[in-house]
Amino acid sequence: MAKLLIVDDEEDVREFAANFFRKRKLDVSTMPSGETAIETVKTDCPDLVLLDIRMAGINGIEALEQIRKFNTSVKVIMVTGTKPEDNDALAKCQSLGVLEYIHKPLRLDELEHVVMSALK
Amino acid sequence: MTVFAASSLILFVFSFVLSILISIFGKAKLNRIWALFNLSVAIWALFIFFASNTHNEGAAILYWKLAHIGGLFISIFFYHTICVFCDINRKKTILFAYSQGIFFLSLCFTDLFISSVSIAFNSFYYNNATVTYSIALTFWATFSILGLFELFRNYRTATGTNRNKIRYLFLGFLIGFLGGGTYFMPMYGLKVYPIGNFTIPVYSVIVTYAILRYRILDIRIAVTRTGLFLAVYTLVLGLPFALAARTKYLLIAAYGPNWWIIPLAAMAALATIGPFFYVHLQRKTEEALLKEQRRYQNTLKHAAIGMTRIRNLQKLLSLITHIVTKTVRIDYAAIYLYTAQTNEFTLQVFREGNRERRRVPPVKLSADSPLIRWLHLNKDPMIYDEIKRVLQDAPNPVGRKIEEQMRHILASVIIPSFLDQKLSGFIVLGDKMSGQIYTSDDLNVFQVLASQAALAIENAQFYEDAKEMQAQIAQAEKMATIGTMADGLSHQINNRFYALSLIAGDTIDTIKLTDTQKCSPEIQEMIKNINAALEKIQMNVTQGGEVVKGILKYTRKGDHKLDPIDLDQIIDATLEMVKYKVKLTELDIIREYPQETPKILGNLVQMQEVFFNFIDNAYDAIVERRNTLKEEGYRGRITISARRLEERLEITVRDNGMGVKKEDSRKLFTPFFTTKISARKGTGLGLYVIRNIITEHHGGRIAFDSTYKTGTSFILELPIAKAIT
């Protein structure tokens, strides 16, 4: 069973996204922050991380930088709610080997499509 | 020579000169007839001078007959003058008057009219009245009285200057004919000395003054001044003579041969005090007479000073009309101000002093109308009566139009008000409720009031503009704050939308995956409804996301990287943004450039901002034209065209909106400058920012061309992207 880690500081997002993908027969775990996400990647080795960029504490990009230090293979999809062009975020994400870059909000079926094709 | 003969000679010279002067100064009908009146007086005076100077009875009879050539017509010309002055049609009566005059003239040299003379006052020959003469005299008197009657009738309906003039005519008549009547006394053997020679010149002068002068003194003032003058100088000159005559012997006894020094000294002393005394008396009496006038003139002066402190334009205008109607007691007052957009003078406020009412005044006057041009040219207050009198003297089409316009806007007086030599507006005044005239003093005060009002109005307008500008700056600041907040805001909003999308999507998914076959039809129906509702939530979330995206596009700073972009790309992206602000269905956007138009080297985000401003401005201008000019079948149009100029692309954005006036166009690119016509309402920053984007960031050029009431074009010159594709 493929492992999906959802990182978002919004509880509702975590809950419903997890719920949705569990129905898709994925092993879903959720984390509310960048810090906890790094630990989970270390211990749990997920196949795919759905990573929110702007969070309280360290942001998604910083978390990913940490993760890449010990894990270069895990697939990552970045989720952003703001302007992607700012701070060269897009370029940085690309250099960190991000698979996809998606903008909030989006329809769940689109998200499903992105996640499922990443895990194929 | 007798006193009668001497005064006759003086009367002759006086009347003759006066009749010549009157004919020189005006060719109008009124002047001609009044000149004839004076001529007939002159003839009369000349021959009674000869008659009273001869010792030959036969000659005296002849002279008296000759005198009546003039005398017979005096009352006829008087009557005719009054008919013309009052503008009344009495053709038949006038014809009859002249006919009887000519009839008696034909009898004049027969013995029926004058057959004998007798010595009067032991000094000169005076003619005796015959029966025919008496009949002629009856006619003569009838026409005098008829003239007086017409004058009286006209007085009751006359207003303003005319009313005042009629008073003068009355007074003149009273003096003139009371004296003139004494001419006839000796003819009937009555021992009354004929004093007409003295009173008729006074009469002639008064009437001539009233007829010829436009702006005449209030009669009360004129009478008082004359009376005072006569009184004071009779005293000054008369007292020393009286002193000399009565006390001559006493003085000789006391002072010897140099006795005359005493009355001379007295005269010198009195002559020195006299003028002061006269001026003092005059001031006192006029103060008493004009108490009312001085009171409101003072009020007006105070009001004029206080006005500049009022900042609310509407309040200020109402106050001016209020003060004018209340304190001066005028039955109507209105203010018109210049409106640059339409080149018209528009009615701002009007006020009626009394309740019963007339027509509604016209709301606007074109700046090209004859009345306005006249005001502009002459800069003086205009008085309806004067215009009308000028027209009577010299009818002309322009004058008639002016007269008509003044009547139309209910003006007895118009006080123009100027700012920097430009007519900024005018005050319209109706008649005084007292029926009195507007004096020169009044007009002076009104002019002061008007010029103060012009300043105050400008002040208030400036204040209101400043207030509006401040509001715009505040708005600009708010926009800027929102811009900086947009980043965080959009994150927050998108997070909410994201959560909503997941909640709705997951629930839909759950429903989809759940087997509802076993449920009752009611439950199935309910689930179907819930599903539909969730779908709607998802749809709204998607749309909301689009809105946020639009805001982000507009507020993002973006980098300044220049990329090859084509015009379609810019326009599409701009329309996407602009549709939230501009009703694109109200206008046509026409792309008039060929398919193969080269790409420019530019920053899409910034170019979007530039075109956003163009379209937004154009839209405002289009709305303004639609609302201001109200043309039939008008539809807004924005045309975008482009042509290659070597290494550059010239892009023209042309609208058919209101356009910009010449004086505003210089300031168009100034920060915070905004007119309602062009710059985007809200910031006044639009074109300033645009110019920076084009010239600083793109190395391009921007120019514009605008014709008021036709439209505006912005012309951009941007570098063409080198073909690297």
Describe the structure concisely.
Chain A has 120 residues and is an alpha/beta fold. Chain A contains 5 helices and 5 strands; from the N terminus they run E-H-E-H-E-H-E-H-E-H.
Strand content of chain B: 5-15%
Shape of chain A: globular
Total count of helical runs of at least 4 residues of chain A: 5
* H/E series of chain A: EHEHEHEHEH
Query: Any idea what the radius of gyration of chain A is?
Result: 13 Å
Q: Count the DSSP helices of chain B.
A: 20
Q: Averaged pLDDT of chain B, please?
A: 83
How does the major sheet of chain B shape up?
Answer: 6 strands, antiparallel
The strand count of chain B comes to 15
Summarize the biggest pleated sheet of chain A: 5 strands, parallel
State the secondary-structure class of chain A: alpha/beta
Portion in helices of chain A: 40-55%
Span from first to last CA of chain B?
A: 125 Å
Helical residues, percent of chain B = 55-70%
* Spatial shape of chain B: elongated
Got a strand count of chain A? 5
